[in-house]
């Protein structure tokens, strides 16, 4: 029985309204599937029209396809010349992008027929509900058998990855949801049955990990995180490494999400943590957290402040301190004059000003930002650090005296390595044994002073407190095991919560799954605000160039495509200028300009602009095609050289390139971005122009017949309803950037934005962690 080809429905987009219909080529896209059906059975009658698919009709810029020429008969039982169809292979035309000789086509057709014949008996078996397997099951089974043959033939890196490893799927994604591996798989028991509208309240508290109070020889290390999420992540990784080198148990703080606390030296960071705890006591669920608690007062701990003074440091510069004090007094006087209540952290509460009125980090808006706190264990897999012998204790209460109570130690048992300015200390073993604990750094680096690790390990104090541990190369040793430990700690930071992995699994599956050789690719594009908005054009041009180079596109072809993309971007900008008649900037530019003028993106609370990013690049892997790969490439429905054929419930924005020189640009691309209007943003235009199958998050979380067959990924909406039960703060807005990073990191190639700590994580450590699980 021939596979049916169906007429597509008209798109809601006005630009496609009058285009001729196109055909579907993907075996998983023959019908409109209801994603709640575990067997992906069709829910649309054959007589009903289907939505458009990825292979669109021709455009003025792209040569036409024989599948989309006006007047081409689309009946599943008629040939192109109008005569009745006579055989199965009449429905398997060779795609125009892979022109094959007729003789080779007949050879391949014969081989395929043999496979179908050999599989007929097994595929005729009845399903669990007594029904017969459907035609698309035959095609998928052939693909599975060919993939097995390919593995047997020795092509170890080919084939589909992660789609046959088991694991529960999203309720709207069916049995084919990609599972990355046991370390990241999810189960239905992790989720709740609800009405789909109400809040989902969770308590992201630590395990907790408690100290062994009977061991009086145990020593501990505590630090003070700051800034956005990824700076806190980097600080934690450095703390784990320092704890390993010093053989100290690391005190794990909570994750502070909300208004980013700036980089500060120890005394100021300690006060910032006390202020936020007193401002949002419900977040910490601590009965002793009151303004009058004796645990609020700092103790008189011995520290480096007196033993190793730093008269040139910012914190000890009398002139600078006087200026800061005067500025703070002026601010407080202004707030009091206006009658504003002042919070413990010195920010005012402005009557009548709401969250919707604040789109920036102005001091008046501080009180509208709702801070919340998460345990690291709730988000990542800290148990991995045990592989390096690092011990952990949870420090949910950040007050110094509270730590003393937790560990049952005295003031003399505590020592503080007290930094006095930003990037003050670097910890290293490069000093001689005769050098002091702390010495000035004479090298031209950003670190002000050096701390001797050998001398630090000799300190007898049971508790060692340090301030900021953020910064690349904050810990530097000649120990060859450091690199291995750093890699382990970085992999431990991969998101593990099922609230993120479940929608990510569903989105990745729709993009074709995690495929080493020809799967989708990801770009982490930070363009929404601040320095990222100001440098967006150059950053995106570099990201585009890196992606295309890693896809193996020759330099002359890259230049040709870039010329096409640049010309189209300029033409579009010129049309916008003419349409606006010189009186208004186009919407995309206005969005970017307004962002850089003060509005902040949803990523602002988790990302930082790093002037000295860590340079980590990986070489794109090139795999020689095997004989069976070539066989697969000759069968249109199973063409492994056309990743777009693996898309499910997705429609590409443009026709595929038919010029073989541009075939790499047909690779599906997931564009993770904080741009408010991605398709209108001129900085992102080169991606949409050169990669026909470019997708953004809105293509998955919003029902759209023209883009996703009207089937949204329901678990994205479910994730958006998460609320911290302790303080009532919604977590959905926070988790959306994390979800974007997870999806982009699962692309076989992931490219990030220069200077972004978020992008650096997504394109290196997060990417490596997820791909390690499937290799």
Summarize the structure.
This protein has 775 residues and is α/β, with parallel strands linked by helices. Helix 1 (102-123) packs across helix 2, helix 3 (229-246) packs across helix 10 (482-492) and helix 11 (498-510) packs across helix 21.
Question: What key attributes describe this structure?
Answer:
8% strand; 22 helices; 775 residues; disordered N terminus; 33% helix; five-stranded parallel β-sheet; single chain; four-stranded mixed β-sheet; Rossmann fold; alpha/beta
Report on the structure:
This protein is of the alpha/beta class and 775 residues long. Among the domains are: 220-309 and 369-492, 3-Layer(aba) Sandwich (Rossmann fold); 498-772, no CATH class. It has 22 helices and 19 strands. The longest helix has 25 residues, at 555-579. It is globular, with a radius of gyration of 29 Å. The two termini are 38 Å apart.
Helix-strand category: alpha/beta
Q: How would you describe the oligomerization state of the chains in this entry?
A: single chain
* DSSP E strands, number: 19
Give average pLDDT, whole number. Answer: 75
Strand order of the largest sheet: 8-3-2-13-9
Separation, N- and C-terminal Cα atoms:
38 Å
Radius of gyration: 29 Å
| Unreliable residue stretches | 1-104, 121-193, 583-597, 613-641
- Please estimate the helix content: 25-40%
For the largest beta-sheet, the strand count, sense and barrel status come to: 5 strands, parallel
Count of individual helical segments: 22
Strand content: 5-15%
| General shape | globular
Protein name: BY PROTMAP: gi|472582886|gb|EMS20548.1| CigA protein [Rhodosporidium toruloides NP11] gi|647396785|emb|CDR39322.1| RHTO0S04e03906g1_1 [Rhodosporidium toruloides]
Biased composition (Low complexity): 7-16
Biased composition (Basic and acidic residues): 567-583
Transmembrane segments: 106-125
